């Protein structure tokens, strides 16, 4: 119902027209956002100004939904556009809260299969992200893993890094700590992994050195 355009008449015959900005059934109040009668000031941007009126629902004689009004604050696009009018009974509203509770936006079909598929994929993505975080390893080891996994498929096995399920890199993660089987293909793969590892460690070391140099120059200011 938020954003619905309505016209109301109070028990004192005051009329207000605007959009429903808020509705509180416990306090039995509705807040209307009404175009302000005060023109924009000289220094304003010229945009429309609004007043907000808090009205007790049991003091409303008439509540009419205005048809064919496009609401700028409408967050319920499928609200029933039929006009609802309350007839006054001895100067009091005959339905009190009911005029608002009966205006219910239509709810579209919920595709549960898509929701479940998104949930399953989200769980898989979270598990994959957690699997990329080493347990009980140093920050340097994690940095090496993150850097190498951008180029080669990697996974953790305790504190060791497994690359392409064939090469294992043990702590302290130097090229001499890389091991694999003795087949020709594995030997070629080992040389490739060692080359990537050496390059990434050099890049990480340069990054740390540059960061330390920047901190030293900053502290000297």
TrEMBL record:
User: Which InterPro entries did the record assign?
Assistant: AD (IPR047574), Lsm12-like (IPR039683), LSM12_ABD (IPR019181), LSM12_LSM (IPR048478)
Q: Quote the Pfam families the UniProt record gives.
A: AD, LSM12_LSM
Query: Where is each AD domain found?
Result: 108-205
Matches recorded under SMART domains = AD (SM00995)
Coiled-coil positions? none
Give the highest taxon in the source lineage.
Answer: Eukaryota
Q: Per its record, how is this protein called by name?
A: Anticodon-binding domain-containing protein
Annotated organism of origin: Gigaspora rosea
